[in-house]
Amino acid sequence: MTSATGLRRTRGRARRWPLVVGIVAVLAAVGVVHSPLMAVEAVEILGADRADVQRVVDDIGLGPGALLLWVNTGAIEAAVISEPWVADVRVDRIWPDRVVVEVIEHEGVVWIEGVLGWMLVSRDGTVLERASEPGSGLLLAALAFPDQLAGDRPVDPAWLEVVEMALVLSDDIGGTLALEMRGAEMWTTGFGHDIRLGHPIDLADKGRTLRAMLAEDIPPGAIIDVSSPLRPAVVPLESQGVVETPDTEG
Q1: Domain boundaries, the chain
Q2: How far apart are CA 238 and CA 136, in angstroms?
Q3: Bridging pattern class, strands 98-105 and 108-113
Q4: Alpha-carbon Rg of the chain, whole angstroms?
Q5: How far is CA 177 from CA 136, 189, 207, in A?
Q6: How far apart are CA 26 and CA 21, in angstroms?
Q7: Which CATH number is 36-105 given?
Q8: If both were cysteines, with which of 19, 55, 97, 245 could 41 make a disulfide (CB 3.0 to 4.6 Å apart)?
Q9: pLDDT tens digit string along 38-74?
Q10: C-alpha dist (Å) from residue 154 to 26, 110, 114, 181, 240
């Protein structure tokens, strides 16, 4: 016959077994995640053409040998998004041994002139890079804005107006035009016409009006005036005080 004392000891040992098994399981799990089997073997960077994401990854110490469990995806995203060319980023841990950094880059839409050079600017107004000369294929704005550093996003209304016009005139028109100041007004020249833009306000509407007018049959040499986008005008060559010299050859 089993005594009461012996029964209590047996029950005590029975209750301890699940606890012991649980502790062993936890220790085993900790040992696995801290073992080389759970270390980062590769960091994949996707979508980065102009952004130097690899430098950011190196600077924060993410690389082979790091423990995947302790990789802070939020901290990595915050570091990568600070790159001027990065518009958005997502970082994922791929078990058992990979980290994937996927970025979406900004798109340059206009070159804006500063005092000391040119700035490539994205569709949200962020300065992507600086250069001594502008690239081709985008609207140029030779308006002598203050110089900005890569990553800056000025809140100057005129700056943002120029960006809005660039978006409206992108592709077929914007890349052929250069905005400039003539006195207190903005002008540009293109498609055989001087184009009066007036003060740097409502530039998106002026761009849309200009696009529509360029689709019409406008006399050669005429000035296109979109300084008031709701009341555009065409000033023919003969009304500009210009007298054409008759062709006497022949």
Answers
A1: 36-105, 108-240
A2: 34
A3: unpaired
A4: 33
A5: 11, 6, 11
A6: 9
A7: 3.10.20.310
A8: 97
A9: 788 889 999 999 999 999 999 988 888 888 888 999 9
A10: 53, 14, 12, 20, 38
